[in-house]
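Retry 2 of 3 after timeout on previous attempt. Resubmitting structure tokens to design endpoint.
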């Protein structure tokens, strides 16, 4: 169990699946760089902002920039934000796991 309450097996599985940001698609780095931009650091993300949903469908990894932009917004709201607009992030460009979440929770 890591400090976000994610069991080891799930952590491993998601790390192997989500090598690029599930939202913007950039390659992510594991370590916080000593200097330089930290936007590409991998962070844990709950697609639905509910820490009690610890499933392979809801736990993903995204870059620090997307994570801080999304914050507490719902996925659907966030996809309409100027951050997503500017970067061309939409329901059609996000990773499979996110598209699936949109479909199920629509
Ligand atoms: Zn991102």
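Retry 2 succeeded. Sequence:
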């Amino acid at each position: 169990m890591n400090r976000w309450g994610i069991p080891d097996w799930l952590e491993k599985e998601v790390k192997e699946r989500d090598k690029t940001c599930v939202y913007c698609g950039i390659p992510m780095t594991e370590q916080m760089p000593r200097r330089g931009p930290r936007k590409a650091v991998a962070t844990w993300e709950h697609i639905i902002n509910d820490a009690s949903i610890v499933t392979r469908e809801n736990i993903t990894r995204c870059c620090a920039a997307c994570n801080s932009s999304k914050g507490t917004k719902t996925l659907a709201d966030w996809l309409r934000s100027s951050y997503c607009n500017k970067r061309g992030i939409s329901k059609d460009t996000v990773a499979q796991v996110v598209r699936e979440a949109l479909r199920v929770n629509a």
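Attempt log closed. The mean pLDDT is 93.
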